[in-house]
Amino acid sequence: MGCVAPVYRPRDAEHTVLHQVIALHLEAFLGAVAEAGDGAGLPKFVEREFREFLLCGVFEGGGARFRCEGCAVGAGCA
């Protein structure tokens, strides 16, 4: 079976409820966690994951592109 060029559909993560809630409340949440504990807040890797989630699917955050080595068609070659 030959390669079929895939149809690219970009993610629209920025318009999901989860993304909007995290974007709106992340700073307040991080501040509240720091105040409630010893001032250290969440582990750095947890904060980093929240921030990276907010960039996921955003073109300004970068991207990746794949192609078939056999026919130079985009990912999705069968």
Which stretches are poorly predicted, pLDDT < 50 over at least 5 residues?
none
Given the structure, what is the number of helices? 2
- The class by helix and strand makeup works out as mainly alpha
Mean of residue pLDDT values: 81
Helix content bin: 40-55%
The shape is elongated
β-sheet strand percentage: under 5%
State the total count of DSSP E strands: 0
Which value, in Å, is the CA radius of gyration?
19 Å
SSE sequence, one letter per element:
HH
Characterize the biggest β-sheet. Answer: none
Q: Separation of termini?
A: 7 Å
Fill in the keyword field for this structure.
78 residues, mainly alpha, 41% helix, 0% strand, elongated, single chain
Describe this protein's structure.
The protein starts with 16 loop residues before the first helix and ends in a 23-residue tail after the last helix. α1 runs antiparallel to α2 (44-55). The chain has helices at 17-36, 44-55. The protein has a domain at 13-61. By secondary structure, the protein is mostly helical. It has 2 helices and no strands.
